[in-house]
Amino acid sequence: MSYATSYWGHHFLLGKPDAELRVQATSFLSIDDRRRRWLMRWLLMDRDGFPLAKILRVLKEVRSRLQENTSGDDVWYDELQDVVEILVQLDEMRLRNRDSNGNTPMPSEVMSTSHRIMIIRDLARSYKLAGRLDDGISHFQAGLARIEGIPEAAAAAAGAWLLNGLGILYDQQGRVDLAIETQERALALQQHASPDLDAVLTTNELGRLRRHRGEFGAARALHKRALAALRAAAPPHDVPDVQELWTLSHLAKTHRAVGDTSAALALHAEVLAARSRLLGADHPHALWDASDVAKCHAALGDAAAACRVQAKAVRRREAVLGPAHHDTLWAVNDLALMCEAAGRLGEALRLHTRAWEGQARTLGAEHATTRWSLDEVRRLRGEVERCGD
After folding, report:
1. Which end of the chain has the lower number of beta carbons within 10 A, N or C?
2. What is the value of pTM for the model shown?
3. CB atoms inside a 10 Å sphere around CB 14
4. Residues 345-367: what's their mean pLDDT?
5. Domain for residue 349, yes or no?
6. Is the per-residue pLDDT at 99 higher than 50?
């Protein structure tokens, strides 16, 4: 059952499904409840691997395959809304199974807040890349209204994670003040209900937002407060957990923002090593860490080291996410900038061109990222012509 849950879509895409199999797949995926039960099982099975990027990619590619030579009317689903709906359903299950003491009489916790927030962060990026931030806000607001309608929700601070998600989406829209206000609402709920580690997650979000607003001292203080709480709550361990690594990563970004690049490099390198041990070197989050290390080398003027680390990250992204994935293409853009800093203008132009062409196919010609890449291509073409590279 577990193998079929995780890999049936993969095998469907690798093979050449006949008409009968296509009909069966269409029937399965066209029913919301059936499709979401499968996705819920997949999310709960692979808690440590954070499989959201893989799930969204499989759903998109399977739908595209089923829509070949059809009108597509029978194969419609919104994979992003599906994930929000699943998270809401899981919280509804948790709340309605609480006993009079507030305990959940289930074999194990349905989903930890830590796991859920990691999913939400990736989900918010997916809404942004799809140009659907307004849809994401609508989906999270609808979920919040449902949760707030459950009597047990207030005592359990159940709406806090939805407020976390809304805050992240508002930040993606550039509405930083509203994002901060929303995260502070979440923090107040958490501290009133039970001042535990859930509040640490929101403290980190507030630190990230303060950095976005240029309040670097406040950002650093918030991340350090979160880090101290995480370390106080856990016994000594060789490898930090996911939330501690996330905190250290954003503390490092705060160092970078104030120009303390050497400290940032040391901390990003520490996070990369630990995340690789915890989740694997090819995990998408570890690949982000690798790019952060490369950016620190670039900021310190070591273009050769920056290009070497970033080129390796690009190769791994290609293998794990695919050459056309938006994270892969953005990493290609970053590598192009580093090659330009190293004086390799021709290579930089080729890389930006590859990213632009891929983004035009996957995101659309008018997407902000695609337009940025096109501007870089045009600029570098002029540089190459002038230099004769």
Report:
1. N
2. 0.82
3. 9
4. 95
5. yes
6. no
